[in-house]
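Blackboard transcription, Thursday session:
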Amino acid sequence: MSYEELDPRKMLILKAIIDDYITSKEPVGSRTIAKKYQMGLSSATIRNEMADLEEMGYLSQPHTSAGRIPSEKGYRLYVDKLMTPGVTDLKPTEDELSEICGYMENKIHEMNNIVKAASEIVSRITHYTAIGMASSEKKHTVKALQIIPVDLKKVLVIVVLDNDVIKNQMVKTPDSLSAEELSKLSVICSNMLTGMQADSISLEMINEIVILSGINRDKILPIIDGVLDCIKQCDSAEIYTEGATNLLEHPEFNDVSKAKSLLELINNEEEMAKLLQGCDGAGAKGIVVKIGTENEMLEVSDCSVVTATYSLNGVNLGTIGVIGPTRMDYNKVISALEYVRRRMLPE
Amino acid sequence: MSYEELDPRKMLILKAIIDDYITSKEPVGSRTIAKKYQMGLSSATIRNEMADLEEMGYLSQPHTSAGRIPSEKGYRLYVDKLMTPGVTDLKPTEDELSEICGYMENKIHEMNNIVKAASEIVSRITHYTAIGMASSEKKHTVKALQIIPVDLKKVLVIVVLDNDVIKNQMVKTPDSLSAEELSKLSVICSNMLTGMQADSISLEMINEIVILSGINRDKILPIIDGVLDCIKQCDSAEIYTEGATNLLEHPEFNDVSKAKSLLELINNEEEMAKLLQGCDGAGAKGIVVKIGTENEMLEVSDCSVVTATYSLNGVNLGTIGVIGPTRMDYNKVISALEYVRRRMLPE
DNA sequence: TGTTAGCACTCAAACTAAAGGAGTGCTAAC
DNA sequence: GTTAGCACTCCTTTAGTTTGAGTGCTAACA
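(Written on the board underneath:)
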């Protein structure tokens, strides 16, 4: 799609309209633009330009005697070219930021939860809903592994991945194993599986573990099962949802049934994983904006989703997505996601 | 409060009114009662009785020409004496039950999550919001403890409590410790702290651990800190919220701002812990019903909260609470909580 | 004395009509 | 190319009207 058709003045007017609509939440008329955004033109002229912009598909009218609202195409152009980029809009929230900073410092060293903490911050800054997904690339490897006796018939399996995600599982053992047997098994498993990827663990390796341990097969199979379960779990992404109720603040969700279906979607981790994964295309600075029906998911077809993927040295750390009405403050959202990147990555 | 003032017929009529209101969600008039609930009386007679019941405070009228709705006092009597107790209302959902049974079987052996699974079931059966709280009695003791090296500068601390709740924490170590030092420290900590209650760990004991280990104090203090953190964490209850969006199904929350404030409350774990703890009074079968303003929390003063505490051999396993409009199907909710008790406790 | 039929009365909700106003499109003049 | 002016549209608000479910009261009845 090329935008050459648009002369600079039209762009300016379109930008003014969208800026205004984003803050006012009301269809904006020609008089408003002529007055508020001093551009030395009368409302009649603006009116003519608006008619042009509508014909080109950048604006639409709810009804004949109403002002104009941006179309998806309008938002698209706005996000791509028009928007005053970067910090500008974040400034008024500087106080919020500092309030939040301290909070983040506390959380940041619980490595497991960086993404959660970051999502919370984004949600708080933007007042939209933030979804965080810790990276779930299959290429993670086992970094540490331990089997701990808990009581006579129970054993705890712990796996730490190379991204410091921790998984554990309690396993009931059919027969009790001695502490020596267990610690031996723990060492063997650790030796065999450390450095392995979840999907590259073969049956042969499991067999080898059983043989090396020299323990009765039936006695330890449940435990090894638990270990594998743990490792597999790591492939299923962790999803953190923050500020879900923020949606209800926006007038486009005044309709309860609409709000309900969206909230239900947001509470559904699988769907959210899909939504965020669908947005992993690089995009400028790793940020992708999907507007309205650009999201293939039907329920969010009147929402926009802005996602940022965070990676360090080529390793994907996670993704944070912001969900809000198509009339969202793209500028603020993108600034927030950038802000979090700056705080997250130097570490 | 005594109910002697009410003759049997008044009770019957009150019960009919409340039954009807619970299902119809509409103020109920005298004609409805006379027709639907065959009791050989004309609407005029019912009308007289209703006027009496209103005077006594069991009913109220939204406006003069509307039917009656139950007052809190009315619900109270209904729950205490009138309600046809037990299974009755659960029958129609027998198919839901069996659908859910299989699901539960899968979850039940993840011991950590019994309460979560149970809450989910309750929420699904009742279509209200269920809040589960795993027991957080301070009297839990440490059952197993282990310190695992993860990489040069990181160590994972794991604590298992006697109720099989697992806590872990990643700790950054200022200086790297050798594997031998760590395993020694792990064994010492385990010996010293196993069987201890969270709040009975003294500074002397920590000192002793440091001395016994023979390692430089500064090197291991962060780790011991992590261990204590872990143990302390166990005192803060785990809260599981299931079916929060179900609230939006009920007409009393058609007002978005009302719904929002309630949803925010429900998402607030501390508040929910307070709410459930406030309801731990024994009550018949461990079930407590708080109607409207009987909840001291302002935001739920037009809701009812039904809580069930589950305990085995005197040990408190957890609490599940159901939140819904005062006009909730108490019968169904109580049945569901009882059902879950039956499935949970034999285990 | 308790029950019931009948009737006047009340009041929210649903519908209708009219007024108000924000905003447009078009035309004609600058 | 820009602008003032004006007729026109159509949503929103307000006020007035109708409808109907439900009540309270009274008088008659068993």
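Lecturer's comment: Residues 41-45, 48, 62-66 of chain B lie near DNA strand C (CB under 10 Å from a C1').
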